[in-house]
Design brief:
The protein is mainly α and about 375 residues long. It contains 14 helices and 2 strands, in the order ααββαααααααααααα. Strand 1 and strand 2 form a beta hairpin. It is globular and about 65 Å long. The two termini are about 25 Å apart. It is found in: Cell membrane. Keywords: Cell membrane, Membrane, Transmembrane, Transmembrane helix, Transport.
Length: about 375
C-alpha cells in the first residue's frame, strides 16, 4: 500500500477510535448517560457566530470617551432534543475535560515520538531535556509564592518555566554553532536535578498550598474548563502539524548527523526546530494538566511496533493514539469512588506494559 493511503487509513481509523472513546467517556460518571444522548448533546454544543451585538460600553482612560464594546453572538448549529440536565453535564462538565485530555495526550505522544527519533533512544520522552521539570518549578512557584510570580496565571507560569528550561538546556549544550546530542542529554539531566532541588525546597515552604502543588505535580484534569482547552489547543495543534511537516528530516537524522548533512539536511537548524517545537507542545500540555508520565514514552513505542519507524506515519498516529490513551486513562481515574490524578493511572498502566516490552525484548534502538 502506498504510504499516503496507509497514513490516511491509520489516521481515519484512529480518529474513529478517539470519537468512540470520547462518547464512552462522556457517558460514564456518577450520572450515567446513554451514548446516543451524549452524541446529541455534543453536537448541540457546536456553535457558530451569527453576528455582532453590542452588550456593554467602556471608557477610554485619559480621554473620557465612552465607546461600545462589540461582542459576537453565537447560535447552535444543531437542535437535538436533550434534557437540560444531561446537556449541561455533557457540554459544560465532561466535554471540556475530555477535550483537554485529548489535546494533552495528542501533544505529549507526538513530542515523545520526536524525542525518541531525535535521540535514537526508545527510552526518551518529552521531559528528557527538562521541560516537565521547568513547568513544575513554574507551577509550584505560582502556587506557593504567588506574590513572587509576575505572570499571575498558573498555566502561564508553568508554560514559561517549561520553555525557559528547554532553551537554557539548549544554550548550555550548544558550542560553536553545534549541539551534540549527548551533551544536550547530560545538560538536561543536570538541569532536571537542579530544578528538582528547587521544587523540593518550595514544597517544604508551601504551607497550606502543599496539597495543591503535589496534586498538580501528579498530573490531573480535574475542574478542566474550555478556557484551559483554549490555552493549550493552538500550541499543541500548530506545533504537531509543523512537526509532521519535518517528518522526512527526522527520518534522515536517524541515519546519523553526518549522513543527514550529506543528504542535504541542515542538521543544526533542523535539530533546533525539532527541539523548539517539541518543547512548545510539551509545555502546552504540561502547563494545563501537570506532569503526566508515560504517555510520551509508551504510546510512540507501541505505534512504532505497529506502523513502523517512518515518522511520516508514526507522528500523526502517535498523536491520535496518545489522545485516545489519555482520554481512556482519565476515565479510569474518575471512575472510582474517589477520583485520583490521571498521572497515577498512566504510570500504573504504562510502567508494567513497558516492562513487558523489555522482557519480550521489544525495546530496541530506533
Amino acid at each position: 500500500m502506498m504510504r499516503p493511503v496507509r497514513t490516511l487509513s491509520w489516521t481515519a481509523g484512529l480518529l474513529v477510535v478517539l470519537i468512540a472513546v470520547t462518547i464512552v467517556s462522556a457517558a460514564l460518571g456518577p450520572v450515567r448517560i446513554d451514548p446516543t444522548v451524549v452524541a446529541k448533546a455534543t453536537l448541540n454544543a457546536v456553535i457558530v457566530p451569527s453576528g455582532i451585538v453590542t452588550e456593554s460600553a467602556t471608557t477610554i482612560p485619559g480621554l473620557g470617551w465612552t465607546v461600545p464594546v462589540p461582542a459576537l453572538e453565537y447560535v447552535p448549529v444543531f437542535g437535538f432534543d436533550v434534557p437540560d440536565t444531561h446537556q449541561t453535564i455533557v457540554a459544560d462538565i465532561r466535554l471540556p475535560r475530555i477535550v483537554l485530555a485529548s489535546v494533552v495526550g495528542f501533544a505529549l505522544a507526538a513530542a515523545g515520538a520526536v524525542m525518541q527519533g531525535f535521540f535514537r533512544n526508545p527510552l526518551a520522552d518529552p521531559s528528557i531535556i527538562g521541560v516537565s521539570s521547568g513547568a513544575a518549578a513554574g507551577a509550584v512557584a505560582a502556587i506557593a509564592f504567588p506574590a513572587l510570580v509576575p505572570f499571575g496565571s498558573l498555566h502561564l507560569s508553568a508554560f514559561i518555566g517549561a520553555l525557559a528550561t528547554a532553551f537554557l538546556v539548549y544554550a548550555i549544550a550548544t558550542e560553536g554553532g553545534k549541539t551534540p546530542v549527548a551533551t544536550l542529554l547530560l545538560a538536561g539531566v543536570a538541569i532536571q536535578a537542579f530544578l528538582g532541588a528547587m521544587i523540593s525546597y518550595m514544597l517544604v515552604h508551601s504551607g497550606d498550598d502543599l496539597r495543591q502543588a503535589v496534586i498538580w505535580m501528579m498530573g490531573h484534569l480535574h475542574n478542566s474548563t474550555w478556557s484551559d482547552v483554549g490555552f493549550a489547543l493552538p500550541f499543541a495543534f500548530v506545533g504537531v502539524i509543523v512537526l509532521c511537516a519535518y517528518a522526512r528530516e527526522l527520518n534522515v537524522l536517524l541515519l546519523g548527523e553526518e549522513d543527514a548533512h550529506h543528504l542535504g539536511v541542515d542538521v543544526e537548524r533542523t535539530k533546533l526546530l525539532l527541539l523548539a517545537l517539541s518543547s512548545l507542545v510539551t509545555a502546552a500540555g504540561v502547563a494545563v494538566a501537570g506532569v503526566i508520565g508515560f504517555v510520551g514514552l509508551v504510546v510512540p513505542h507501541i505505534m512504532r511496533l505497529i506502523v513502523g519507524p517512518d515518522h511520516r506515519i508514526l507522528l500523526p498516529t502517535s498523536a491520535l493514539a496518545g489522545a485516545s490513551f489519555l482520554v481512556a486513562t482519565d476515565t479510569i481515574a474518575r471512575a472510582g469512588p474517589a477520583e485520583v490524578p490521571v498521572g497515577i493511572v498512566t504510570a500504573a498502566l504504562g510502567a508494567p506494559f513497558f516492562l513487558f516490552l523489555l522482557v519480550r525484548r521489544e525495546v530496541h534502538s530506533v
